[in-house]
Structures are given as C-alpha cells and as structure tokens.
Design brief:
By secondary structure, this protein is of the alpha+beta class. The chain is built from 6 helices and 14 strands.
Length: 304
C-alpha cells in the first residue's frame, strides 16, 4: 500500500462526555495475484479494508476504552473499516456515547451507522438507544442503506426468526472507483439455521446490484470457513483470506484466538494482494475480536 497520512483526533482528545477526555472455485480463480481485470483493462485503485467487531468499545478484559479502539483502528491504517457491535447511546456499558461518531471524529473519517436495535429513549427527549453495525471510510460515502435480513431478536422474550435491520450497505467513492461495502453481523447461536437464512438474504441483496458492481462484504459471521451455512456465499464471493492470508487468520477470542470468524469477501474483478490479522499492539487487545485486514486492488470506473 502507498503510505498515507491521516489527521486524527487521537493526539488531541476523544470526548467521553461529563468532563472525561480520552488522551469457492469459480470466483476464487479470478482473484489470483495479477488478476487481469484489475491490472489490465481497468486502471487499479489500491484499497485497504478491515472487518472489526469492536465489542462496544470494551477491550479483551472487558474494560471500556474507546480511545484504545480508535488507536487500534488507526494502527491498521485501513481506508475502509466495517464495524460490528457498535453502541449509539445504548447505555452505561459504553457511557451512553455514540461510538460511531466518537470513532469517526477521532480518526477523521466518514461514518454511516445501521442499527440492528433502536429502542425508545430512557428519558423523554433523549436519544434513541441503538446497537448495530457501521462503516468508517476515508473516502466519501455517497449512498447508504440499512437492509433487513432474518434475525432472532435478543430484545424479545420469545423471539422467532423475522426480518430485521442491521445489514449495512455503503457506496464509497474511492478516488475513481465506486465500491459497495457491506458490514454484517450474523447470528451467534450454535444452531446454524438463522445464519442459513441470513446468508440467503445476503445473497438476495447482493444480487440487486448491477452486474459488474465491485462488492466487498465484511463482518463477524460467527462461523468458521468450513461451516455449511457459509458455503453459498463462496459460490458468489471469494473469501479473501484463502487468496493471500498470512497465517491461520484466527480472530477470536482476542487474548488466545483459536478460530477464524471475521471475514472480508470480495466480488469478481477485485484482486487480493495481502491479508493479515494483527498479533500485537492495540489491534490485538482492544476488543474480544482481532480485526481482519486485507489489501485489495479494485477497478476504476462508475460501477452502480
């Protein structure tokens, strides 16, 4: 990646309020290094992306430290970051902060937030208590949609699978490249049935884009790569780690990772140049997940 300089608020202050200041074979074949469509017909745009479950700003030992989260994101130096477990005025565990905006301001990045849950304010006139996913971007977010996929709500006493929001689609203008970035968080339960439905919903949403759209799906899938419920994804997208991953790619649990459940998956005409999971520093300790970081080359041009 070409070295970049980012002006951030980390060296100044990150407000915490109340006077606190925080000092699949078909697709895979097209993603070999030197893939012609990225390097040949279409002049290339380099893009570093990352998927990061930030655990509502809590570090690996459970302590809330949003400054550490911001530092972790800065150290991986990604152009676009898909976030999961993002609190927005959710409550005491994250000091009632809007974590999406806190991170965007600290890192001087654009942000779009897609709530999974949006509860009534605790106090009349106060902000809604929300929890969901988000996309941070160095480049402008020119369009954003909060799609519905099947969910089994944690807010209902007797939940049943039903459509619910929280599948983010951000259209990003990365210099001359138009890229559709998705941030998702699949069901955590041992029973894979809800994840199966969520994958089917995801494929339907992806299919709504025009042919040739550059698509990057990132998120906490709560399943390992060989899981049967993920198999349909790999017929349409490529798991970037299988192309250029360095090591086992384990992301969870952060203090002693033993499984890969956080992903970057890409559409055809995207070249995967490298992929890594941080093994030390704040990006290895600032959540109960470690981020998956991938260097891509995407085609230029206006792709809807």
């Amino acid at each position: 990646m070409t070295a970049r300089t980012r002006t951030t608020g980390l060296g100044v202050a990150l407000s915490l309020g109340a006077g606190l200041v925080l000092a699949a074979t078909g697709p895979a074949a097209a993603h070999a290094n030197g893939q012609a469509s990225a390097h040949g017909r279409f002049p290339a745009v380099e893009l570093r992306v990352a998927s990061y479950n930030i655990a509502a700003g809590r570090d690996a030992d459970g302590s809330f430290d949003i400054a550490s989260t911001a530092e972790a994101i800065e150290t991986i130096d990604a152009d676009v970051v898909a976030l999961q477990e993002v609190d927005v005025h959710w409550g005491e565990r994250s000091l009632d902060l809007d974590l999406a905006e806190e991170l965007a301001q600290a890192l001087d990045m654009h942000v779009a937030f897609a709530p999974i849950y949006s509860n009534d304010p605790v106090d009349d006139g106060g902000p809604r208590a929300e929890f969901g996913v988000a996309v941070l971007s160095d480049y402008p977010i020119v369009d954003f949609t909060n799609h519905e996929i099947t969910r089994l709500s944690t807010q209902d006493e007797e939940p049943v699978p039903a459509p619910g929001p929280g599948f983010a689609e951000a259209t990003i203008q990365a210099r001359a490249a138009r890229v559709h970035v998705y941030s998702t968080h699949l069901d955590y339960r041992g029973d894979p049935s809800v994840r199966e439905m969520q994958v089917a919903d995801t494929l339907e949403i992806l299919a709504e884009d025009d042919a040739g759209t550059t698509q990057i799906l990132m998120g906490d899938f709560n399943a390992t790569p060989e899981a049967a419920e993920l198999a349909p994804l790999w017929t349409v997208l490529t798991d970037a780690w299988t192309i250029a991953g360095d090591g086992d790619g384990f992301t969870f649990p952060a203090d002693a990772p033993d499984r890969r459940i956080d992903y970057v998956a890409v559409s055809d005409h995207v070249s995967v140049e490298g992929a890594f999971v941080p093994t030390d520093g704040p990006a290895a300790t600032s959540s109960d997940h470690r981020p998956t970081v991938v260097d891509l080359v995407v085609p230029r041009g206006h792709r809807h």
